[in-house]
Every structure is written in C-alpha cells, then in structure tokens.
C-alpha cells in the first residue's frame, strides 16, 4: 500500500514537472519572440536614422555610433546576420520612389518624341529625332537627356530624392505628356499662350525637382520653396540664354559682305501699315526702315530681287505686302524684281512661304532677311530649321530704351518658344 502511494506521488510529480517544463518552454518562446520583435523595431529605427543622416555631413559621427550599436543588437534567432532585410516603412517608401522614377524615365523619351513630331509637323516637315544642325534640336535633346540622366541617378541612389519629389516628378511628366499632345494636335495660331507658358514652366519644374538635392531636416514648405526657386532659376537661365543669343546675333550691314553671300533674294518682313488722315495706306516707320534697307541692297546689286510679305490686319484692308510693293514702285523699282506674298500673318508663315514656294518651286535657298535687329535671330533660326540658308540685315529704326528692352525680352521669349515648341 505504501509502495503504491509512493509510485502514485512520483507519477504526479513527474507530470507536474513536465507541465512546468512545458510552461517554461512556452514562456521562453514568448520571451524570445518578444525579444526578437523588440530587436526588429530597434534595428528598423536605427537604420532609418542612418539613412536620414546619410545626406548630412554633420551626421558622420552619429552614423558611426549608430552602426556600432546596431551590430551589438544580436538576435538569438538570427545570430548569423544582424541586418536581415525586412519589410519596413523605409523600404516601402523606396519602392514607391523607384516606381515613380521608373515611370518618369519611361515617359521622358515619349514626351521628347511627341514634341519633336509637333515641332516638325507643325512646319510641314518630316520629323528627324536625332539632329544636331540647329539650336532647336540641340536644346530639346539636351533638356531630355538631362531629365533622363537625373532620373537614372535618382533610381540608383534613392536617398538623394524624397518620395514627395519622386511623385512630383511623375506628375510633371504626366502634365508634359498631356501638353505635348496638345501642341501636336493644335495649330500654331490656335495654341493658347497660357498653355505655352505652362509647358515651358513644367519643363523647368521637372528639371528642378530632379536636380534639387534633398535636405531631410528641412520642413515641407522649405522644400517646396527650394524647388520653386530652382524652377525659376532654370527658366531665367533659358530666357537669359535666348536674350543674349538674340542680342549678340551677328547681322550683316555692309553691301560687299551681303553681295558675297550670293543670295537668291532679299526678304522684307511685313510690319504695320498706317491708315487714315486722308493719306491712304502708307508704311509705318518700322516698315519704311525695312524697305529703305531692301531698296538700298537692291539698287546696289547686293541682291537680285526682293520679296515683300504680310497680309492685312482685317478683311477689306490692303495687305502689308501690297503697300510695300507700291512704295517700291514709287521709288522706280522694276516690278519683275518684286515678289509679293499677301497671305501670311506670322513670321513662321512667312518662312514657310519661302520654303514651300521659293525653295520648292524655284529652288531658291539663300535669302537675306531684312527686319529689326532683335527680330533677326528668331527668323534666321526658323530658316535654318526649314533647310534654308539665311543671313540677317537689320533696319536702322531708332526706338526708346524702354520700348527696345520690351521688344528684346518679348523676342527672347518667342525665340525660346520656337526652340522648344517650333511655334
């Protein structure tokens, strides 16, 4: 009886010991899991701090301490590798950034293709995607290459750019694609000036978003202001380049050097016509100065013939080209040496007349463009883009300083618009 009781007690003790060991093992597992979770959170926080300070030169010592401390946090469940990859908020942010930047990288060549087609087809030409003979082609290619290179660098080093900026780059790329499609579908005369400004500013903003270096410790408002400042800087740089290009554009004034160019014709671009006061239609001072230069070159033998261009401002009015022709006839010019074009309302239409009618039908390819000095750079660029060889000869009109500055700035904007949009 005593032996049986002892055996029963031993059996109960053994079962109690097994239960205790099971509870201990379960507690150990819970403790290990809790410890692992704690290490997981601490390691994630340290890695985020490391990346946050990676762009700050003053945080080098802090980064060293963070790395030393993080290596001391050894996970008993993962002893072999203390920095095992884990799905953290930082990794998800990088995935979003890389996805946005990858879509931006794919969208930029498409935007370049659409805008190139719009520039060429808007002037009745066959698109050439890689051409280095005009500033319009070179500038468009350089801007597209800058965007693509900056995007690739941001993909390779995602810490250089924040998630908000990556999404902003994607949004600006979408806006550019939408506006580029609008440029391609719309005639030059129907495309709103506001849309032109929006497209150029979107280009500048996209470059500024990709080229502005991140500062993790700055506030969101400060980051937006930095990007806006850099966008204005890019726009001012492009406008300033166009201004100085047109300002220092080489024009020809000597009869001998113009005669050595061996032009097929001189081209007097249309200008305003004055009416009323019982005097009928007569050239404005700007048009008269251009006609004086054309008449002088024609009578001295520097050019064989003279092309006068320009339609009327309103139905029923005499075209600018007809007024210019009558003025030349009064001076005794042979009518056979005057070519009249009365359908163009813009400079681009006048250049297209030279390309379609004179180059296409009479095989004339060399022209002397006669206009105001600040206008010559854009006209010659249009001629070069359309396969014409042209030089400029400025008129001698005198204008007040403020008026001249206004016209130069306006022509600089128009030249930049032509370089980027072909309008």
Short description:
The protein has 423 residues and is α/β, with parallel strands linked by helices. The chain is built from 13 helices and 7 strands. Helices cover 64% and strands 7% of the residues.
For the record, give the distance between the C-alpha atoms at the N and C termini, rounded to a whole number.
Answer: 114 Å
Mean model confidence by pLDDT: 80
Largest sheet: 5 strands, parallel
Determine Rg (CA atoms, Å): 36 Å
What's the CATH topology name of the largest domain? Answer: Rossmann fold
Question: Which spans of ≥5 residues are poorly predicted at pLDDT below 50?
Answer: 56-87
CATH architecture of the largest domain: 3-Layer(aba) Sandwich
H/E order of the elements?
HHHHHHHHEEEHEHEHEHEH
DSSP E strands, number: 7
CATH superfamily of the largest domain: HUPs
How many separate domains?
Answer: 3
Number of helices: 13
Summing up helix and strand content along with how strands pair, one would put the structural category as: alpha/beta
Write the layout of secondary structure elements.
Elements: H1 2-52, H2 60-72, H3 89-121, H4 135-156, H5 163-185, H6 193-211, H7 220-247, H8 255-260, E1 265-268, E2 273-274, E3 282-283, H9 285-299, E4 306-309, H10 320-330, E5 338-341, H11 347-362, E6 366-371, H12 373-385, E7 389-394, H13 401-421
Helix pairs in contact: 1-2, 3-4, 3-5, 4-6, 5-6, 6-7, 7-13, 12-13
């Amino acid at each position: 009886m005593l032996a049986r009781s002892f055996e029963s007690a031993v059996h109960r003790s053994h079962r109690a010991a097994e239960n205790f060991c099971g509870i201990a093992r379960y507690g150990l597992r819970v403790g290990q899991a809790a410890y692992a979770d704690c290490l997981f959170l601490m390691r994630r926080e340290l890695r985020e701090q490391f990346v946050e300070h990676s762009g700050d030169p003053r945080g080098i010592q802090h980064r060293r301490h963070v790395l030393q401390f993080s290596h001391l946090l050894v996970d008993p469940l993962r002893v072999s590798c203390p920095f095992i990859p884990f799905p953290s908020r930082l990794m998800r942010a990088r995935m979003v950034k890389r996805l946005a930047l990858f879509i931006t990288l794919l969208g930029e060549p498409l935007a370049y293709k659409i805008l190139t087609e719009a520039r060429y087809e808007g002037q009745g030409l066959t698109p050439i995607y890689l051409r280095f003979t005009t500033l319009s082609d070179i500038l468009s290619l350089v801007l597209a290459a800058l965007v693509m290179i900056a995007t690739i660098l941001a993909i390779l080093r995602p810490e250089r750019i924040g998630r908000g900026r990556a999404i902003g780059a994607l949004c600006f790329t979408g806006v550019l694609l939408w506006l580029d499609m609008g440029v391609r579908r719309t005639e030059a005369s129907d495309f709103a000036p506001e849309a032109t400004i929006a497209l150029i500013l979107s280009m500048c903003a996209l470059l500024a978003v990709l080229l502005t270096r991140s500062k993790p410790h700055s506030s969101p408002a400060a980051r937006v202001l930095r990007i806006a400042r850099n966008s204005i800087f890019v726009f001012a740089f492009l406008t300033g380049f166009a201004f100085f290009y047109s300002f220092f554009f080489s024009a020809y004034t000597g009869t001998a050097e113009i005669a050595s160019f061996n032009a097929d014709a001189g081209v007097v671009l249309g200008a305003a016509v004055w009416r009323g006061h019982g005097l009928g239609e007569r050239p404005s001072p700007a048009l008269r100065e251009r006609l004086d230069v054309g008449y002088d070159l024609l009578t001295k033998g520097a050019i064989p013939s003279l092309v006068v261009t320009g339609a009327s401002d309103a139905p029923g009015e005499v075209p600018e080209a007809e007024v210019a022709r009558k003025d030349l006839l009064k001076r005794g010019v042979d009518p056979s040496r005057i070519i009249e074009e009365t359908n163009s309302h813009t400079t681009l239409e006048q250049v297209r007349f030279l390309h379609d009618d004179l180059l296409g039908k009479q095989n004339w390819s060399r022209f002397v463009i006669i206009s105001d000095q600040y206008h010559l750079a854009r006209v010659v660029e249009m001629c070069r883009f359309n396969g014409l060889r042209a030089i400029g000869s400025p008129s001698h009109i005198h204008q007040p300083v403020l008026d001249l500055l206004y016209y130069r700035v306006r022509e600089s904007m128009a030249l930049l618009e032509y370089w980027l949009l072909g309008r």
